[in-house]
Batch of 2 targets.
Target 1
Amino acid sequence: MKTTKNHLNVLIIGGGLAGLSCAIKLSQMGHRVKLWEKDSTIKRKVCGEYLSPLGVECAKALGHEELFSGFEPIYGMNLTAPNNCLIETDFPKSYGLSLNRQEFENRLMAKALSMNIEIIRGEIIKEINPEGNGWIINGHHGDLLIGADGRQSLVAKTLKLQKKSSQKKVALHIYIKRQSDFQRRGEMIILGRAGYIGINPISENEDNLSWVGDQEVFKTWKNKDDLIKEMLKHPRLKKLYGSNPQYGEITSVAKVSQHVSGMVTHNAALIGDAAGFIDPLTGEGMTRAFESTLLLSHALENHQNLALSLKAYQREKKKVTNDKNRLNTIFQFIIKNTAISNFVGFFLAENRRRADIFIGIIGNVYTPLIGLKKMFLDTTPRSSL
Ligand SMILES: Cc1cc2nc3c(=O)[nH]c(=O)nc-3n(C[C@H](O)[C@H](O)[C@H](O)COP(=O)(O)OP(=O)(O)OC[C@H]3O[C@@H](n4cnc5c(N)ncnc54)[C@H](O)[C@@H]3O)c2cc1C
């Protein structure tokens, strides 16, 4: 059996944040990496571009800090409940980042190319076949296959790891000119059954705004322009963007989740969105892309053979995502229920310490369990959280 101390031939499908980060990390560990990316140039993907505090830490652990220059910090979130109650929060002793994805992915790609990693751009992989103890893609043999091909993952489908999901959501996205005082905080506006809006101050006068809601809600609108126009009448958005908001093209995404039964099979692993993604609500997709790369690379480093490494990767990945996924499911329930959302809003608005802990859980500064303990059992003052 191939040991992970040998240098493996690694085949990666997908050159987004997860795939490129993984290619760089595994190449630094001495493995021979080949990566395929279907797009020949890097586009600005539909994404809130908010990197959570944990995401910042994971990216630093991968050595990406040198690629952060020019990206501004985010110190917290303003939450607006359906009854328009505004809750200002700060991340406890940490910060997130407004990360221009296109720019960042270009920097990652340049780093990978400067390391002579073999990257085949503009080629879409349509078929993956097992061969001996490994895999073969377009005539290239690999000991380890990594699916970093996002929410429509061919690798997850081929390996029969993808699960059907009943969740049908749509996301609309715009860049919009900011007209009010500038704050380095994100915004989350809860609209009850009409979904939610996430905002990230991507530059001094421009915000990145996404609306996410059920397909059923989306279908009640004649078109996406009407929906966005109506959303922009929300009092909080009027305050931020005035009564004549200036925004660019509306882009949309129809698959916002990815459900999997597992993250590994024989000599293959999924990372990033391909390994599972519930909803953009808590803005942690990029965090999971970096985190899964770290977990996989640690597992390969610390176990003697590939089978044990992959088992360890899946165990650790499930550990970090299971609690958060449960919490995300609870949040989904809360935000759809106006009365409960308003109650939670009142509960947080009443006490700034609570609100900061809450946003600490969302930003993965605290695990859900530690956050809840701090909120209800601990008396540490807000300044020492
Ligand atoms: C509306 C919305 C808002 C979001 N906001 C945030 C946010 O604010 N913060 C956050 O952290 N996350 C956010 N996310 C999630 C975030 O965008 C993803 O989690 C992140 O892009 C995952 O990175 P990835 O590398 O796993 O996948 P991707 O970025 O999707 O990369 C996958 C790559 O694989 C390539 N590919 C796919 N199939 C093939 C193939 N067959 N052959 C070759 N190449 C292939 C694709 O071209 C792509 O480049 C949001 C998502 C949505 C939908």
Target 2
Amino acid sequence: MTPSIETSGAAIVFNGQAGRDYTPAMEAILSDATFQAARSAITSWPGYAPTPLVFMPKLAHALGVGSIAYKDESGRFGLGSFKALGGAYAVMRLLMKRIADETGQTPEMADLFEGRFSEIADTLTVTCATDGNHGRSVAWGAKLFGCRCVIFIHKDVSEGRKAAIEAFGARVVRSAGNYDDSVREAQETATREGWFVVSDTSYPGYRDVPANVMQGYEMMAFEALAQMDDLPTHLILQTGVGGMAAAVAAHVWRRTAPHRPKVILADPEAAACWYETIAAGHPVTVGGDLDTLMAGLACGEVSELAYDILKTGADVVVRLPDRAAIDAMKVLAEGACGDKPVVAGESAVAGIAALAALMEDTEAAARLELGPRSRVLVFGTEGDTDPAVYARLAGRTGDEVRAAATAWEKRQ
Ligand SMILES: Cc1ncc(COP(=O)(O)O)c(C=O)c1O
């Protein structure tokens, strides 16, 4: 059965600057050493477990590729998205630095969990702007390590997502404008109040914290490679500010240097800053209200650090209409082709939708060598992070899909 993912309206742009060298400038952002530090911390956190890699052989066959591996982040630390890896790790690093500055000692992980420096942790307020998932991670990290937390959300963030952040004890402030306006408001308030911004995006003069965030994200790529028998030939990575895509691309690139798999970015039509940036050959800001259903990808400005990696690390960008994402959510929820049903949220499915769009365009697919021998790795970056939105779009609830997945497993 051919999955019905409506991709008309999708657009594809190839990157004229794509390259093969993982340069010293990239090493300075993401290296094996910085990843090992993140890995040893994150794997020691309570509740750590690798997330599953789900193979979708029937969907792969229907779309015309050799294999599709879907890294299902819906269960990550019980937060519902891969973002748990990044913001919380950056909070931990900030706290460790403050403890080292104040005591002259480098704390151990156990010191943090046993509250040995709780008085210092209580003096640290972390803040960020978020479309939901990053703020949830920062709030969770603040709670885990005993810091204070204030999170800024923009006008389109759903009440469900707001409540999920508040559940970790953070104060949530709703700003009037779009995502990029909330980023500025968080920064200005932090400067005034002496708080620390834990942003997942970087800009001139602000790179260390978002680099830590990206080092945490690499965990997802590390696990995925360990779960595959052969290296992927293609990565398809959805982009908000691009931090996730850059972290995954960089990790896989270091493991495969001087070669690397083809890197395909997937950007929503209403917030296509990566599409415009790669088309122009320099960072381009996209304005407007960035109103896409793919809430996690609703960003108008690329992250500086991500651009440093993806300006040569990306081969192509696919710009997707929301319709394609909704269809892909349904395909995965139904297990439409006979594969295991998966709870894939609005921002999780862009990789599958982009693959469908590329396979419709025979010229683009041929240029990318996408075909029956391709091993495609996609990242299902969230589950039903907003259960009501998910049920409305996927046509069934997350619980129904999880029950269907269990039944599917029993039949195997
Ligand atoms: C579920 C989900 N997927 C993907 C992304 C994109 O990550 P980035 O902004 O680092 O590109 C986000 C960002 O919030 C997200 O929440």
